[in-house]
Amino acid sequence: MDATSSRAVGPARTAGPADATGPAATATATAAEVPGRRTAAPADPLAPYLEADFPWYGLDEGWTGRRWLLQAGAGGHRPGQPRTIDYGSVGHGDEPPRQHETPSARRFAVVVTVARRPGRRSADGTGMLEATSASSAAWLAGSGLLAATWPGQLDRGRRQDWLDQQTAIAWDLADDLAGPGWSPLTLPVNGLPHPFRYRESEYGWVLAGEAPGVLLGAYGRSVSAYGIGFAGIPDLAAYTPHP
């Protein structure tokens, strides 16, 4: 990868998921009308999700626990122009810690939906963004897991060093989904079997693959990836905002 290109939805190598737009952020533009989509007020936590031109996915009806919004964001957004939502996450189970809190033993699964985008010019006009792929979803899922499970005994400075190191590893793994760091896993999507690539670590698990109209990633801890399934979200109101 040369210096003038980057992932269509991914940040620079050492950046983290905090680059995405948070669910409570104010919408900066009105997206084109999409049939069946309601118009959100600017302060509506669902606003970034409802601006998207692709379907959102979460765990299917087999999950009976809490559901919540995490983040939705625009990759390669050019300042002064209407943004295009390119990816976002919804959570299931225990909510993530706030920035000042230390991660603890939590049971959760997060689903990352990524729009299928062709290669296009970067926001600063200096290069081209790569087309999205399953690797894009794997990268976002891997960095999300790191942010949710960093070792609590680390101070702030050492935590950043740890995040930088582990993020670089997650980036390299995402670029090689066919490699030995991943294993195959078949899971239902809208009731039909779909192939995914899966890996485990001491921090939890990450998987990535495809779904109708989008790319899917997921990560979790203390929830078995082998027992989950994915489905299109019929009503985002079922997901409460993460405070």
From TrEMBL:
It comes from the Bacteria. This is Uncharacterized protein. It comes from Kitasatospora nipponensis. Residues 1-43, 74-105 are annotated as: Disordered. Residues 10-32 have a biased composition (Low complexity). Residues 92-104 have a biased composition (Basic and acidic residues).
